[in-house]
UniProtKB/TrEMBL annotation:
Residues 24-278 form the EAL domain. One of its GO terms (biological process) is phosphorelay signal transduction system. It comes from Desulfocicer vacuolatum DSM 3385. The chain holds residues 334 to 625 of 629 of the full protein. Keywords: Phosphoprotein. This is Response regulator receiver modulated diguanylate cyclase/phosphodiesterase.
């Protein structure tokens, strides 16, 4: 089971779906019709500057509501969408929807520092990926500097030429790159030299390890020090406790994301959140300090 699934995520299990294969086939069948039924929605989770408490941006997170299956968590259906190739269409929908949303927020004057969008490795290596990004940016005219795509460490691990080239093409378009779930493979570091990564997101497993002991803490402080050395931003994700936040602050981690600060929210919820935080520095500070 995935590390991020809570117990309530299994509500869509049905008595009839008692074998993994059957369950998978059922989900896949529904997934093929999810677009027609308008079943996808993006949620947004704010990220914060750990010193000032200011939101620095939001990460778009895909939600799938299906009448029969209920809420299917992305850790369940994204791998299936990758296997079937549907991830290309789903990924394009996510990219277009998130960029449109960001543009709408900018037009309405909501403070939005950045929008981060997850890109699956399968989607990234698809030959049309860069063209798709160009098309969307041309169509929506979102300043590309606002856009940060989150890729996985596995993608850059081997240092494949094509991948470095695609990353560099995106950098030329002024899109930012973050490495998501960073920490399990320091081996991918060599590739970081060859392209211009903007941000490392420390995997929530390691953030959770802060409370565990010296080993967990040294992995986290190691990543923070390395990011600093290499001029990259660093975001700790999955921050759930005050103790973790205090440790991250002590180690001068720049940004945080996690349930301690805010859960992923629907569009209207995140709008209210961002609006209420307009020009809010001192308020945010006190709020955050209170929480810490
Ligand atoms: P991720 O990109 O690493 O996203 C962070 C996940 O951690 C999200 O789960 C988020 O809701 C959850 N999270 C945030 N703060 C906390 C916390 O304090 N505690 C805990 N326990 N969890 C926290 P979510 O939304 O279920 O997404 C899971 C994964 O599915 C994402 O991990 C990402 O890999 C993938 N995913 C989600 N949306 C998309 C998408 O639009 N495209 C692609 N390709 N993948 C996506
Ligand atoms: Mg992510
Ligand atoms: Mg992550
Ligand atoms: Mg992940």
């Amino acid at each position: 089971f995935s590390k991020r699934m809570g117990p309530n995520m299994f509500s869509y299990y049905q008595a009839s779906m008692n074998t993994p294969t059957l369950k998978r086939m059922t989900i896949e069948n529904h997934l093929h019709r999810a677009f027609d039924g308008n079943e996808f929605e993006l949620y947004y989770q704010p990220q914060f500057d750990l010193i000032t408490g200011t939101p620095t941006g939001v990460e778009a997170l895909l939600r799938w509501h299906n009448r029969e299956l209920g809420e299917v968590p992305p850790m369940e259906f994204i791998p299936m969408a990758e296997d079937s190739g549907m991830i290309v269409a789903i990924g394009e929908w996510v990219m277009r929807t998130a960029c449109r949303q960001a543009q709408t927020w900018l037009d309405r004057g909501l403070p939005l520092g950045r929008i981060a969008i997850n890109v699956s490795s399968k989607q990234f290596i698809h030959p049309g990926f860069v063209e798709m990004m160009k098309r969307i940016l041309l169509e929506i005219k979102l300043p590309p500097g606002l856009l940060e795509i989150e890729i996985l460490e596995e993608l850059i691990r081997g240092g494949a030429r094509e991948i470095i080239e695609t990353l560099n093409a995106l950098k030329q378009m002024n899109i930012r790159i973050a490495v998501d779930d960073f920490g399990s493979g320091y081996s991918s570091l060599a590739c970081l030299e060859e392209t211009d990564i903007d941000c490392l997101k420390i995997d929530s497993v390691f953030v959770g390890g802060i409370s565990g002991g010296k080993v967990g803490r040294s992995v986290v402080s190691g990543i923070i020090a390395m990011a600093e050395e290499m001029d990259m931003r660093v975001i700790a994700e999955g921050v759930e406790t005050k103790e973790q936040a205090a440790f991250l602050r002590k180690k001068q981690c720049q940004e945080v994301q996690g349930y301690l600060f805010s859960r992923p929210m629907s569009t209207p919820q995140v709008e209210t959140f961002l609006l209420n935080n307009l020009g809010f520095k001192s308020v945010a500070n006190s709020g955050l300090d209170h929480k810490l």
